[in-house]
Write a structure and sequence with these properties.
The chain is mostly beta strands. Helices cover 5% and strands 34% of the residues. The protein contains one helix and ten strands; from the N terminus they run βββββββββαβ. Strands 1, 4, 5, 6, 9 and 10 form a six-stranded mixed beta sheet that branches. The chain has a two-stranded antiparallel ribbon with strand order 2-8. The chain has a two-stranded antiparallel sheet with strand order 3-7. Helix 1 links the parallel strand 9 and strand 10. The chain is globular, with a radius of gyration of 19 Å. The termini are far apart. The relative contact order is 0.24.
Length: 122
């Protein structure tokens, strides 16, 4: 490193990159669940754009599971940020309306599209 380039001060240091996944196709129309959702512990890292279902008994959210019978078989919303549920329940924000890039969503299917009535998919 050439310290003279920075007047003797350390350089900018290592450069890191971060992948930014944008699931919204447009920011014109969007709405989130007021107060957010409580993601249930034990689902690892749940990625932005994951379709969520709500467990009836606990009222906690988990990734949408069409074959389940605990309530999570109904799509309710779409997670708007990566969240780590490995060690505890965690609060998160989620969209209930918006225009989304379907290919960037996790767990989207025909039944989820029907349940997410205020969402449009491009």
């Amino acid at each position: 490193m050439n310290h003279a380039q920075y007047n003797g001060a350390p350089g900018p240091g290592p450069i890191y990159t971060q992948e930014f996944t944008e699931v919204l196709a447009s920011t014109d129309l969007q709405a989130k669940i007021p107060g957010g959702v409580l993601l249930a512990q034990g689902n690892g890292v749940v990625k932005k754009g994951t379709v969520l279902g709500k467990i009836t008994a606990s009222k906690k959210f988990i990734p949408y599971k069409p074959a389940a019978t605990d309530g999570s078989q109904v799509a309710v919303c779409i997670l708007d940020n990566d969240q780590d549920t490995s060690t505890s329940d965690i609060g998160a924000s989620a969209w209930i309306a918006g225009i989304f890039t379907e290919s960037k969503l996790t767990g989207i299917d025909a039944a989820a599209k029907t349940a997410l009535r205020l969402c449009y998919f491009a």
